[in-house]
Write a structure and sequence with these properties.
By secondary structure, the protein is α/β, with parallel strands linked by helices. It is 28% helix and 15% strand. It has one domain: TIM Barrel. It has a nine-stranded mixed beta sheet with strand order 6-5-4-3-2-1-7-8-9. The structure holds iron/sulfur cluster. Pfam families: Radical_SAM (PF04055), SPASM (PF13186).
Length: 287
């Protein structure tokens, strides 16, 4: 597909459940943390959105946040997505995974993704601002032992220790390892206004994101580019409306001199081109 071929019908959605997280990463792309909340979308709102998504042609959803497993209804909502035939990836920090979640991840079409900052616990923990390295590493090992599909994104600010961190993950048995850089959004922007040029350019192309308050945006990074709200308007109407088309055009215009366009692989949440931290993951959330 060329950059001129834009899919207006989404095949995949980010279910951006919450702004609550146990961690407080210095680079978090949407300012999540311990004081974050779950927004105003109810369990039934999310279930309804998933039902609409299925009839709209979506086949893959990624649960993300914040830490999606902290949402009190997340397991129920994610199970509904699987039951409706969607493939479901949960992007978790893997700090604390309950037995119920481990059971969920072993179901067909369920998978896990996480971020890893360094093989060096001190460096990893300096970025997450919590002693999280030991927990994330332990749960990476557990996921592999249980045979759960797992991909790990190494998020780097400067490439420091990148090769050593890759080698450690490979030695643990991780097969799908990506590398992403910190994105200029949320805390990663260091106070600057959102910059459209920090997006991959494929936002809204066969994908969209729904935030904890129901707002829809072209992708999980571009949450300030609201194109509608699923609490007020049907998902299909939002995705096919001129507002969405204009948002896509604005984003693409920022990439018009990008030849070849970034990323050089399709940027889709349901393939290796646009899952957080997957190479060449110019479009992956920095988590
Ligand atoms: S980057 Fe991810 S793990 Fe870190 S605070 Fe944000 S949502 Fe939590």
């Amino acid at each position: 597909m060329t950059i001129t071929e834009i899919r207006s019908t989404p095949e995949s959605l980010w279910i951006d459940l919450t702004r609550k997280c146990q961690l407080e990463c210095i680079h978090c792309y949407n300012d999540s943390g311990p004081t974050g909340d779950h927004g105003i979308m109810s369990r039934d709102d999310w279930i309804d959105v998933l039902d609409q998504a299925v009839t709209t042609g979506v086949h893959h959803v990624q649960f993300i946040g914040g830490e999606p497993t902290l949402h009190p209804d997340a397991l129920d909502i994610a199970a509904h997505a699987l039951d409706r035939g969607l493939s479901v990836e949960v992007y978790s920090n893997l700090v604390h995974i309950t037995n119920a979640w481990w059971s969920f991840f072993q179901r067909d079409r369920a998978s896990l993704a996480t971020s890893y900052y360094s093989h060096d616990p001190a460096r990893h923990d300096a970025l997450t601002k919590r002693p999280s390295h030991q927990h994330t590493r332990r749960n990476i090992i557990k996921a592999l032992k249980l045979g759960i599909p797992l991909r790990v994104g190494i998020i780097t600010t400067d490439g420091h220790d990148l090769e050593a961190t890759k080698r450690e993950l490979e030695a643990l048995g991780v097969k799908r390892i990506g590398v992403d850089h910190v994105r200029p959004f949320g805390r990663g922007s260091e106070g600057a206004a959102p910059d459209v040029s920090g997006l991959c350019g494929r936002c809204g192309d066969g994908r969209a994101s729904i935030a904890p308050d129901g707002t829809v945006s072209p992708c999980v990074f571009s949450t300030w580019m609201e194109v509608g709200n699923v609490r007020e308007t049907a998902l299909k109407s939002i995705l096919s409306a001129p507002t969405m088309r204009d948002a896509r055009a604005l984003i693409r215009a920022e990439k018009k001199d990008d030849n070849p366009p970034t990323p050089p692989v399709p940027c889709r949440p349901d393939d290796d081109g646009c899952r957080p931290g997957i190479p060449p993951s110019w479009c992956g959330p920095r988590r």
